[in-house]
Amino acid sequence: MRERGSVLVALLWCMALLSLLVIGVLHSSRMGLMSVRHHGDAVQARYLALAGVEKAKALLYQDARQRSRSAQSHGRALADAPDQFQDIPLGRGRYSVVRAARADEGGGMVYGVSDEESRLNVNVASAEELLRLEGMTSDVVAAILDWRDGDQSPGPGGAEADYYAVGRNPVRIRDGPLETIRELLMVRGVRSEDLFGDDTQGTGFREVDSVEGEVEGESEPIRQPAADRGWAGSLTVRSAVANVSASGRSRVNLKTADESALTGVQGITAEIAKAIVAHRGRGSLDSVADLLEVRQAPAAGPGQGGPGGPEGNPAAEAPRPGGPPENNGPKVIDANLLRDIADEVTTSDEEELVGVVNVNSAGLEVLRCLPGMTRELAQALISYRSSNGSLPNIAHLLLVPGITEETFKQLAPRVTARSETHRILGEGRMPGTGAVRRVEVVVRVTGSEVRTVAYREDDL
Predict the structure, then answer these.
(1) In this predicted model, what pLDDT tens digit does every residue of 322-359 receive, in sequence order?
(2) pLDDT below 70 — which residues of the chain?
(3) Which pLDDT value is given to residue 34?
(4) Which of 247, 279, 246, 248 has the alpha carbon at shortest distance from 262?
(5) Cα-based distances in Å from 103 to 108, 142, 178, 227, 393
(6) Neighbours of 306 (CB within 10 A)
(7) C-alpha to C-alpha distances, 112 to 97, 242, 313, 424, nearest whole angstrom
(8) Residue 27: left if φ>0, alpha if ψ -120 to 50, beta else—which one?
(9) Which residue ranges make up each domain of the chain?
């Protein structure tokens, strides 16, 4: 009996060990299957995010073509388009295109794309503009200017290569345009909390505690708009628009065009064209705003044209001793005419206008940084465009209450009425495992192409 009892005990131990072994194998198999499932869903979530990006690119291209055909500078449809971008089903999963809304837009999360021209370009902005950012200091501004310039001579309060070459983590100064906003973290005095605020990933969102997913024991991350987006919420390194009209035509350069080319602009008569050419010999044309100072050209006569005038004697065009001759004639271009022609003319030979700010999409914190602007004027502009729609061109700023001709002259070289550079944040989600992947792409969109200028998916 004792031997049978011992055999039974041994058999029971064997059964217990075999049960544990089987349970372990089954658990390992389940974990392996779950790992494969998670990996597969993660891959699918990534391609869902890319699907959102590709759809946004297609819609942006279509919008650009339509606006070009109708000579419309700005469209708002894709900035808030939940019907196109919110939880769109595809296969077993869903994709969205999201952005964080600014405070003047009501905050929260919006399903749509954002534009880089609504931000201040850190590679172009002046010291005065940068200093108006909330929490910015003069020492940090000086360091940024030295980081982006091309010389080795530190400005007042700045820092050049000698400063960055020492210390625990030496870095090489850029001495050129910044390539990303995150690069500012390498600049002396720039802290992460100042640059990104609550937005630790630099996307406008922050991670919060996860919640239970659709399958028990599994969870998915939750993202909410960051309350404090820091300087990064107002800055960019990639804003630029083509120096053409809303319809895509080449603009006429006020600095170099002859009378014949100027009269090709609808609204500019032969008399006005002559006055513009004459004005170039007396004053500057640094922006379209200077057209408001153009006065009627003096009548032809000795010293002004005709026999013995400029055609017969080119020396007659030379300025009189002590400076160019004054012209007290009547002004030939008023605000109404300027609004008609502003989008057809330019004062730059550059093919692209880098760093200009879109007055139709920029928020309060960016607008108040621009020359001549105050918080009150920025709010007035936002209220005006909310009530009256997008400004067709920058000359319509003169219709905004409080913006005078003097203010407009300061603003004109720094602003535009449209955007061509867009930031797309695609997000793909898979049910069950709750796998989430995000892809951020910056594209340049014109009526002829969509060009990717930046791509990121590392830690979104």
Answers:
(1) 555 567 789 999 999 999 999 999 999 999 999 999 99
(2) 1-5, 24-37, 199-203, 206-228, 300-326, 458-460
(3) 58
(4) 279
(5) 8, 28, 27, 9, 25
(6) 13
(7) 6, 23, 62, 8
(8) alpha
(9) 56-122+190-243+350-460, 250-348
